[in-house]
Design a protein that fits this description.
The protein is α/β, with parallel strands linked by helices and 312 residues long. The chain is built from 8 helices and 13 strands. Helix 2 runs parallel beside helix 3. The longest helix has 19 residues.
C-alpha cells in the first residue's frame, strides 16, 4: 500500500502527464506590443548641470530601444514660485534637451512644478500663461489630460495637480469633477478586452509616500494630500469596474515602489534627477523605468539607474 507521500507524488505526476504531453496543450507565447521609457521628475534648471543630466538620461533610456518616451511631469525645477522669465528659461533648457537627445516620439504629463505662478496668485493670475497654460503651450497639449492608443493598448494621461479647494496657494493631488467624468467615460468607451495603462505625475496609490516625511517625530503616519491622490477611493472604485485597467505609472516622490491592489499595479518610478541633481534621494539614484506591455495585457516595469556625477 502507498503511504501518503507516495500517493501525492503519483497524483502529481499523473496530473502533469494529463495536462501536458497526453493532451498536447501548449500555452500561447505572449508578444511584446510596445516598450516605453518612463522618465519623470527631471527638474531641469540652469544650475547643477541639470540639462546635461537630463540629456544623459534620455540617451541612456534609448539604449533599450523604446517605442516612445513618456515624460511624467516636473519637467522643470519649478515654476510655482518664480517669475515668468525664470520659468521660460527652464522650459527653454528642457525643450533644447528633448530636441538634442530624443530620437523617438515623446509624450508628456504636467507635474506640479510645471505650473506657473500658483504660489503668487494675486500677482500672476491675470497673465495669459498663468497656471498650466504655459506648460500646455510649450508641450503642445490642448488639454492637460488626454488619451491615445498604440499597439492595441489604451493610454490615459491624467492631470494630478489642482488648486486647493479653499483657494489658497499650493496644490492638492486629485482629479476635478470634469476630469473624473471624462475618465469614467473614457474607460466605459474602451472595449473590455483592450488593456489600459494610466499615467499621472502624482501617485494615485503608493507605499513610498510613507517614507517621505518625519513620521518618527510626529508619532503618526502622515501622507499629505500633495503627495498622493486624496481622491484615491473613488478612482480605485472606478478602476474596479474596469478590470482591463492593468497598471498606473507615476513619479513625484523620487522613490520607486510597486503596489498591487484590487487588480491594478501601481508603479512609482523614481526620478531622473535623483535627489534633485544632488545625488541619491534615500536609496534611489538618477533613473528611469523601462516598461514592456504585451499583447495579452501583461506587463513588466523595471527601474534602471544611470551614471551621473552631481555638479556644483
Amino acid at each position: 500500500m502507498m503511504d501518503r507521500r507516495e500517493f501525492l507524488g503519483a497524483g502529481a505526476a499523473g496530473l502533469a502527464t494529463v495536462t501536458g504531453a497526453k493532451l498536447g496543450l501548449t500555452l500561447p507565447e505572449r508578444k511584446r506590443a510596445v516598450r516605453i521609457a518612463h522618465l519623470t521628475d527631471m527638474h531641469v534648471q540652469p544650475e547643477k548641470g541639470a540639462q546635461a543630466g537630463f540629456e544623459a538620461g534620455l540617451e541612456a533610456c534609448q539604449t533599450h530601444s523604446p517605442d516612445f518616451i513618456f515624460c511624467g511631469g516636473d519637467l522643470i525645477m519649478d515654476a510655482l514660485g518664480t517669475d515668468f522669465d525664470r520659468a521660460k528659461k527652464q522650459w527653454d533648457l528642457f525643450t533644447a534637451g528633448v530636441r538634442a537627445s530624443a530620437g523617438v516620439p515623446v509624450r508628456y504629463a504636467i507635474g506640479n512644478h510645471d505650473v506657473w505662478g500658483w504660489n503668487n496668485i494675486s500677482k500672476y493670475q491675470s497673465e495669459s500663461l498663468f497656471g498650466k497654460r504655459h506648460a500646455q503651450e510649450v508641450l503642445e497639449l490642448a488639454k492637460p489630460y488626454y488619451a491615445f492608443e498604440q499597439a492595441g493598448w489604451k493610454f490615459v494621461v491624467l492631470d494630478s495637480t489642482h488648486r486647493k479647494l479653499d483657494g489658497s496657494g499650493g496644490y492638492t493631488a486629485r482629479l476635478d469633477d470634469d476630469q473624473f467624468g471624462w475618465l469614467a467615460d473614457t474607460l466605459t468607451g474602451t472595449p473590455n478586452k483592450q488593456p489600459v495603462m494610466v499615467l499621472s505625475h502624482i501617485p494615485i496609490f503608493c507605499a513610498c509616500a510613507f517614507l517621505d516625511g518625519d513620521n518618527e517625530k510626529s508619532g503618526n503616519w502622515q501622507v499629505p494630500g500633495a503627495w498622493m491622490h486624496i481622491d484615491v477611493r473613488r478612482i480605485k472604485d472606478l478602476f474596479l469596474k474596469h478590470p482591463n485597467v492593468k497598471l498606473a505609472l507615476s513619479g513625484h516622490i523620487h522613490l520607486a515602489d510597486r503596489v498591487d491592489y484590487l487588480g491594478v499595479s501601481y508603479f512609482c518610478n523614481g526620478a531622473v534627477s535623483g535627489g534633485w541633481w544632488g545625488g541619491k534621494y534615500q536609496e534611489f539614484g538618477n533613473g528611469y523605468a523601462i516598461v514592456d506591455l504585451y499583447d495579452d495585457g501583461s506587463f513588466e516595469n523595471k527601474y534602471v539607474e544611470f551614471s551621473w556625477t552631481p555638479k556644483a
